[in-house]
Amino acid sequence: YLHYDEITLATPYYKRLKDYQKDGLQLNTLVSMYVSWYEYKSYLISLDTFKTALNAHKNIFNPAMDTIESLSFYILYAIIFEDSALHETIMHSLLNNNFYMSQILLFDIITDQYLLFLSTDDIYYNDYERLSTLFYEVSHMWHDAYFIYSAYIHHAHIKYKNNDLTYLDDLKKHLYYEHLLHSKSSKKYEKIISVMTSSSKDLILKRDLEKALK
Questions:
Q1: Given a cut of 80, is residue 85 above it in pLDDT?
Q2: 124: pLDDT strictly greater than 90
Q3: 189 touches 153 (CB < 8 A)
Q4: From 12, 80, 82, 108, which residue has the greatest number of CB atoms within 10 Å?
Q5: pLDDT tens digits for 155-170?
């Protein structure tokens, strides 16, 4: 829920995650970092406090990012600190370790987080396209609705950047999945959508429905 900026829906899980002590040190620490992220998003702690927490626990994770936990931590770290020095290792880990075969939920969350990070800077366009393509392929391989919902918006954005007008089809599919999932409109994709169209999401769907009914 936090990943989709559903802070209200994430709140009931806050205490449960805060007290989480079940698995190894890396996973427990990763959970605590996501708890801190929730606190930062909920204005319970400052950005500087969150950065201090990330730095304090950095030594627990392998900078080679050879585990899904280490990769998840360093993606969160790179986004918060806007640290481009970690980019090559993150991309290598995402594209070559095949974590998605056994860790599909984390792969969905962290890849989407990193795609959003890459989408804001044209210097990363080639890697954004490569990772977006993999994300799209894996999402359809697993037939997971939330995963596909996330994949379609990045797929549309890549097509838009390549002047492929079929990007509108993928944008509509993203919006259809949003309605299908009965999810509160996620804020995190608004910047990408606003780049591609000035129309409201509801208007896009309305026009498409009117076209179909004709």
A1: yes
A2: yes
A3: yes
A4: 108
A5: 999 999 999 999 999 9
User: What's the pLDDT score for residue 183?
Assistant: 60
Q: Residue 39 has what pLDDT?
A: 94
Q: Of 141, 81, 150, which is closest to residue 110 (Cα–Cα)? A: 150
CA distance 68 to 71: 5
Please tell me the distance from the alpha carbon of residue 163 to that of residue 88, in angstroms, as a whole number: 27
**What is the Cα–Cα distance from 119 to 113, expressed in whole angstroms?**
10
The yes-or-no verdict on residue 58 having pLDDT over 80 is yes
200: left (phi over 0), alpha (psi -120 to 50) or beta: beta
Q: Is residue 156 packed enough to be buried (19+ CB in 10 Å), middle (13-18) or exposed (0-12)?
A: buried
Q: Cα separations (Å) of 118 from 6, 75, 142, 154? A: 22, 11, 24, 11
